[in-house]
Design brief:
144 residues, alpha/beta, 4 helices, 38% helix, 16% strand, globular
């Protein structure tokens, strides 16, 4: 899979991670175009089903990026998100897809460099893991 380019979905909270992504762009920091950003009001709004659906729809990796611990604008949204990510990682390991495809990242709005580095690191990590096995699984016939 030498030419494999992963697709990565990043669920980014509005207040910190999304602003950090914007900061990375403002500073003209380069990061791989493999990362597709989905802006959410709070990382705590990202449920396990959203992560699983991203993988089902063909993402090779997913990360949830939220505020630094203790700095969530919605009190404990980032802590709740971290618990959900840990649950999904365990579930993915159990079903053979691999929990390492999913991560929880914490950053502040001023961490444009961290956002760019996280995007690069996650892209490289998923590139080494290879494509999401769900992409190649046969689809079940739907009853009409």
């Amino acid at each position: 899979m030498e030419n494999f380019e992963p697709t990565i979905v990043a669920f980014c909270c509005h207040y910190c991670a999304y602003t950090a992504a914007d900061m990375a762009g403002s500073k003209r920091l380069c990061y791989p175009p493999n990362v597709k950003i989905i802006k959410v009001p709070c990382s705590g709004k990202v449920d396990a089903i959203h992560i699983m659906k991203a993988l089902e729809m063909g993402a090779d990796g997913v990360y949830v990026a939220g505020c630094l611990e203790g700095d969530c604008h919605f009190k404990s949204g980032n802590v709740d998100a971290a618990k959900r990510v840990a649950y999904v990682k365990k579930l993915l390991d159990e079903i053979g897809i691999g929990g390492e495809r999913v991560e929880m990242i914490l950053m502040s709005a001023g961490m444009g460099e961290r956002f760019a580095q996280t995007a690069a690191d996650m892209t490289e990590k998923i590139r080494k893991l290879g494509p999401n096995p769900v992409k190649f699984a046969p689809k079940a016939n739907k009853a009409v």
